[in-house]
Amino acid sequence: MGLTYPDQEGYAYAFERAELNAANRVLTALKSVKIDQPTEEGVVMGTRSYPLKRTPGNMGLGEGTMEFSDEEERQVFLDSLGDTYRETIFSVKWILKAKGKPNITYVAYGCRVLNDGADHSQGSDALGGEVTFSFMSYTRNGKVQHSGQTAPNR
């Protein structure tokens, strides 16, 4: 049986081909979306000086950032959340695509805006900015991170 070598000449996933939907709005002027929700493990200690077992752990609220390359689209997104936009709950979904490869779909659920600070300056690039948000959970291709966890239906 011979070795199977990876395809080094195919197409890679690129954010430029992503589709992004936040709060039921299709967004196109985004440079990046970042999310992070680590698992904090616990251990079982005994009469030894080292852990005997580990626990499945817990996840707290996750945190994410959407970086807009167009200030107008950032404002339209925030306006769509209403007058008390930092209290409105929404979801963020993005799909990574690559020619000849299956899509990879992320969905962050129970999102809430935490910060939408401004950092404007003169230059050749258009004005934009970041929106930082918290989220309750996320799925990657519909899969959850821990046993017993369910994917929300919204």
Task: Give an account of the 3D structure.
The chain has one helix and twelve strands; from the N terminus they run E-E-E-E-E-E-E-E-H-E-E-E-E. It has 154 residues and is mostly beta strands. It has one domain. Strands 1, 2, 3, 8, 9, 10, 11 and 12 form an eight-stranded antiparallel beta sheet that branches. Strands 4-7 form a two-stranded antiparallel sheet. A two-stranded antiparallel ribbon has the order 5-6. The chain starts with 13 loop residues before the first strand and ends in a 14-residue tail after the last strand. The mean pLDDT is 88.
Give descriptors for this structure:
mainly beta, 8-stranded antiparallel β-sheet, two-stranded antiparallel sheet, 6% helix
Lay out the secondary structure.
Elements: E1 14-22, E2 25-27, E3 30-36, E4 39-40, E5 43-44, E6 53-54, E7 58-59, E8 62-68, H1 71-80, E9 90-97, E10 104-115, E11 129-135, E12 137-140
Antiparallel strand pairs: 1-2, 1-9, 3-8, 4-7, 5-6, 8-11, 9-10, 10-11, 10-12
